[in-house]
Amino acid sequence: MTGAALAAQTPVTGLPFNTARPILESLRDDLRPAEFRGRSIAAIEADWPAWVERRNREIRARVEQGDEDSIINFLLFGTTFTSEPRLTEQDLATGFVSRRPIVERRIADLVTGAAAPAGNGRLEFVRAFAARKGMDLSAPAAPAALRTYLDQGVARVAAERRELAERATAAIERVLTNPATGLPEAATLYADRGLASDTSLFIDFAVDAALEALKANAVVAPGMVRRVAIVGPGLDFADKREGYDFYPQQTMQPFAVADGLLRHGLSPGGGAAIAAFDVSPRIIQHLETARTRAAAGDGYVIQLARDTAVGWNPNLVAYWKQFGGRIATAVPAAAPPAGMPVEMRAVRVRPEVVRAIEPRDVNVVVQRAGEAPFDLVVATNILVYYNVFEQSLALGNIASMLRPGGILLTNTPIFQLPSIPLTQVGFTDVLYTKESSGRDRIFWFRRE
Ligand SMILES: C[S@@+](CC[C@H](N)C(=O)[O-])C[C@H]1O[C@@H](n2cnc3c(N)ncnc32)[C@H](O)[C@@H]1O
């Protein structure tokens, strides 16, 4: 394939009020942001440009919080800066109990590593993050300050994890007893959290299963997906599950979608042009760097780790084995640390495919990029970070980016408003593992 290109980039603009108006008109007053409750549409319209600007700033500030969460994950689960054992999600859920000394030694090792990153991209990131917070690691007092900062970060993340689990259980019960409040609660669980960047092969498998089902059900005709937007492609930094730090940071979703569209015959033989919208400077930068390297003839290497201690669904194993088959060639994989139950493969994506992916700094809640219309938009594990009003804005925005008949795939159960021209036309359920949490549902929405 040669890789298609999007049209020349047009400026990113604030979301026009004509997208917000029908949402405000149809949204229950208690689901509007507090500052808009009980106010007339005309009064809100007068404030709209200022609100959009402020909200854009506030949402972008949440990226910094998400970066801090990624650093805490790296601290707890990483293996490149320490010889201490990896902690587990269970340790986090139980507040570490007897493993507290391991946390302390990991903190000390991370601070030492960040002071001399020696080419380790994640440690360089920690060092830069600390500097932004006023802890320049070449200054004598900074290491102790960073240790305290990280210690508090671990406590915060553990407390948040517990609170989130309780809220999720309560919301699921309420979905059954009182859907009017339960559904918005369940779909907005992360609305006050930092914007995480994590991504994993699991969700790519789920989206792939949805693409296959779209074709099997003739929802999308062969060869018809030419222009795609991935909203929030993410970066695999150091997750608790399926994210490891013994290989460089990587993004996967744009490549997974390009590969799946070709394999299922949904994009033309030359492949689809893919826009990747994100608010995270480090994700945009990462994709820009990949494109620059691709222009010089370098492919993009993706490391594919399979946790052999967890019983993966055999279909997920099959997906892992053939990932990249249409866009990449197999290359030697990074070696996991001794004793880690991980099987590896790696692929190098061809430069022309990398060049067909265009990163754009767009906040999909309050900004619009002009490259529309798209045939397909993929927005997984992103809408859940927003309240119902902001989700609706993002959905109205996505609807306006799709051509009539175009498809949105998302795994967030959406609070559907009649004013947004997106109709659910199906869903795909996938199982990742045997655990009850190891599942996902991808909803298919069609632009009217
Ligand atoms: C948790 S990651 C999910 C990554 C990937 N889509 C997946 O499902 O694994 C969320 C991604 O959405 C991005 N994001 C969050 N809010 C956004 C917004 N308002 N506009 C654009 N991107 C956003 C984050 O920076 C990050 O890349």
> CATH class of the largest domain, please?
Alpha Beta
Considering DSSP H and I runs of 4 or more, what fraction of the residues is helical? 40-55%
End-to-end CA span: 31 Å
Q: What fraction strand? A: 15-25%
Would you identify the regions where 5 or more consecutive residues have pLDDT less than 50?
A: none
Cofactors and ligands present?
Answer: S-adenosylmethionine
Class computed from helices, strands and strand pairing: alpha/beta
Overall 3D shape: globular
User: Counting H and I runs of at least 4 residues, what is the number of helices?
Assistant: 13
Radius of gyration: 22 Å
- The CATH superfamily title of the largest domain: Vaccinia Virus protein VP39
SSE succession: EHHHHHHHHEHEHEHEEHEEEHEEE
* Largest beta-sheet details: 7 strands, mixed
Number of domains: 2
Spatially, the strands of the biggest sheet line up as 7-3-2-9-10-12-11
What is the arithmetic mean of pLDDT? Answer: 93
CATH architecture of the largest domain: 3-Layer(aba) Sandwich
- In CATH, the topology of the largest domain is named Rossmann fold
Say how many strands there are: 12
